[in-house]
Task: inverse folding
């Protein structure tokens, strides 16, 4: 059996266990928790695996434009929110791209971050490891806390979210983007630490 085929079974068992944790119930009560081997579109692709919180209605709104942006008669619609989701996508070269999608509402801006890349695994066998999947789950939970309407993230959760947004490759405006903000932050921290070290050295000398 190929490694990614084995992951379909292993991932289903592991993520079903994750979703049953007590901390997940705060979201499970409002969003349906779904583990979808071979993809969320009816299990039609052996090259995909999805784990996600589904959609829920949260408000009513008025739409006055159609999908092409043309003015139409105002219509009352139900606004919905989709929960955070993980996608494992096997590429043509056999590598597996792990993508984390934030929770989104019908009114979110089109230019917001579409997904964060948690990793690109050249060897799919690495995913047959519950510790690695636990890290993906923790990242998914963090993103759910910080991007869903019902999130209420703690300061620790917000710090984890900062790392995900600034320390990982992400997809926005049609292209993958490098985590440049983290590189800049490291330069600033290095600069500050150098200044502090020099100041302490001068104090000792004096």
Result:
């Amino acid at each position: 059996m190929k490694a990614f085929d084995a992951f379909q079974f292993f991932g289903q068992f592991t993520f079903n266990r994750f979703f049953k944790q007590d901390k997940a119930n705060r979201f499970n009560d409002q969003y349906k928790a779904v583990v979808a081997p071979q993809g969320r579109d009816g299990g039609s692709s052996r090259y995909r695996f999805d784990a996600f919180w589904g959609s829920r209605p949260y408000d009513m709104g008025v739409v006055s434009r159609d999908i092409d942006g043309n003015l139409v008669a105002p219509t009352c619609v139900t606004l919905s929110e989709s929960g955070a989701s993980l996608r494992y996508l096997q590429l043509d070269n056999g590598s597996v791209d792990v993508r984390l999608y934030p929770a989104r509402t019908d009114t979110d801006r089109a230019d917001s971050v579409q997904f964060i890349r948690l990793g690109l695994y050249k060897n799919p066998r690495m995913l047959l490891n519950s510790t690695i999947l636990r890290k993906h789950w923790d990242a998914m939970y963090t993103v759910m806390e910080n991007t869903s309407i019902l999130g209420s993230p703690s300061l620790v959760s917000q710090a984890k979210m900062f790392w995900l947004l600034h320390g990982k490759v992400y997809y926005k405006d049609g292209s993958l983007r490098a985590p440049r903000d983290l590189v800049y932050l490291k330069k600033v921290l290095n600069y500050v630490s150098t200044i502090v070290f020099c100041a302490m050295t001068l104090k000792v000398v004096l």
Notes: The longest strand covers residues 71-82. The two ends are 70 Å apart (CA to CA). The chain has a mean pLDDT of 85. The longest helix spans residues 180-205.
